[in-house]
Design brief:
4 helices, 89% helix, disordered N terminus, transmembrane helix
Length: 170
Amino acid sequence: MAREGKETLAQANKAEGSGEGGSATLNDRLIKERDKIEDQILKMEANVFQLANYYFVFQGVILTAIIKGSSSSLKCNRVWLPFCMSVIASILNFIALGIMADKYKQLLNGVDTENVMLYQYMYPTTSRMMRKWHQDRKKWRTITMVLSMGMLSAFAVLSLLATWIVPCWD
């Protein structure tokens, strides 16, 4: 990836020409590209939180209906409908969040690459340090994504168990 960044930087230098006017324009282009990706990241974060919140509310509505219904008409032999609804919602949510997480990681890696390119251009002596920083961020990003999906999975399993167990609790 660093090699691609150097090639891109070299191509941009050729396109801009040499001299201070060209370097200022290249710097501006790199900053604008990074800002554009950061805007996409903010929109993606808002969409992920919104989707996760809708999922939590949906599961809360299902569990509320089960708890209220378990005292009257919802019996253990009729639990399959809310359980299936909860399973379908969980599967669809995981698919959507998985796709969004992959795009999110790509966007964040794009910002990191733009930052590395920008710092390589502005401060050539820091390129090794910036590459290490980029690798560390990718590692922590992966750990965070795995933990987040793991906690969401735990919530889904607990919701499914509650959907099945509460009406049959006697």
